[in-house]
Amino acid sequence: MTPPSETKSGQLYLVSTPIGNLEDITLRAIRILKEVDAIACEDTRHTQKLLNHYGIKKRLVSYHEHNENSRAPELISELKNGASIALVSDAGTPIVSDPGHRLVALCGENNISVIPIPGASAALAALAGSGISAERVLFLGFLPARQGERRRALAELASNSATLVFFEAPHRIANMLSDASEILGPRLSALARELTKLHEEFLRGTLNDLAKKLNSTPLKGEFTLVVGPPAERDTAAPKGLTLRQRVEQLIRSDALDRKAALKQAAREFGIPRREAYKQLLQDGEFPNEGPSEE
User: Fold this and answer.
1) Smallest Cα–Cα separation from 86: which of 75, 101, 98, 71?
2) Are residues 186 and 273 in the same domain?
3) Last residue of some domain: 211, 231, 251?
4) How many domains does the chain have?
5) N or C: which end of the chain has fewer CB within 10 A?
6) Distance between CA 256 and CA 263 in Å, rounded?
7) CA distance 178 to 207
8) pLDDT band for position 278 (50/70/90)?
9) Does the structure show a pLDDT above 70 at 236?
10) Adjacent-strand bridge partners of 253
């Protein structure tokens, strides 16, 4: 028995598509793609291959990070006029490290229904296959491409006790692992490559193990990195260092500016940031500016 249509006019559907293997799409997603009036997608050629595989013929509208600001209002206009539209990314769940947030936000402002159609997710697939705790998880997407910004972002995560999940581009993965190893320490991690594809692979070990592996044997493909929480001792300040020495150590690493170094050191020593600042002033000169109000 053919299920009844669930698409209605003036609704936006966020349809998850395969992340590699074309079979990883739900029956509901296929039906929605057949029923909507148009499909908004990052790359029309890429999406057309998926539609051809399932015999779907629809009007495609390009929607990507470079035209999102202008295209979103156009799609809102169509939705307000009664069109049903599906938004898809090149792979996986729309919005997650992909464009689409502006369109969904505008739908909320215009009382247009948004219906997510769940499906494939590289982050969840990597987490499930990593063997690392999934009790508390923080998804970070892509870190900044510039090394200085990337190192500062990693330093802010150094004392976070959640399992961390990142996406990374193939040409940056080796450098990213090296920075993560130095800043986050010897955490157990899993690097998932080419998930659901022919050459799917999981590499497991400490961040340092993975950094050495990628530096000696460069790998191609799409990468998702799962980083386990730090051992309890890793959240404390290194033994034998004073507060000032720890702050200076963090500054010398070029990972943190003075305020960020003070904030992290205070956290490691288990004291309020303002108290840490007062201690440093008593010991001698430190940054002219005090910590900002929180």
Assistant:
1) 75
2) no
3) 231
4) 3
5) N
6) 10
7) 8
8) confident
9) no
10) none
What whole-number distance in Å separates Cα of residue 277 and Cα of residue 289?
A: 10
pLDDT at 237 over 70: no
User: Could you tell me if residue 6 is inside a domain?
Assistant: no
The answer on 95 and 166 residing in a single domain is no
**Over the range 176-192, which residues count as b (16 or more CB within 10 Å of their CB) and which as e?**
bbbbbbbbbbebbbbbb
* CA–CA gap between residue 52 and residue 72 (Å, rounded): 26
- Rounded Cα distance between 83 and 101, Å, is 19
Rounded CA-CA distance 140/212 in Å is 23
Rounded CA-CA distance 104/89 in Å is 14
Residue 41 tokens read as 């997608």
pTM of the model: 0.75
Is residue 292 assigned to a domain?
no
Instruction: Indicate if 81 and 171 belong to the same structural domain.
Output: no
Look at residue 293 and tell me if it is in a domain. Answer: no
Structure token pair of residue 234 = 């890793």
In angstroms, rounded to a whole number, what is the distance separating the alpha carbons of residues 201 and 192? 6
Across the range 102-120, mean pLDDT stands at: 96
Domain of residue 251, residue span: 236-283
Structural domain contains residue 215: yes
Is 172's pLDDT higher than 60? yes
For residue 137, how many C-alpha atoms fall within 13 Å in the half-sphere facing its CB? 16
Per-residue pLDDT averaged across 262-283, rounded? 77
Q: Are residues 224 and 130 in the same domain?
A: yes
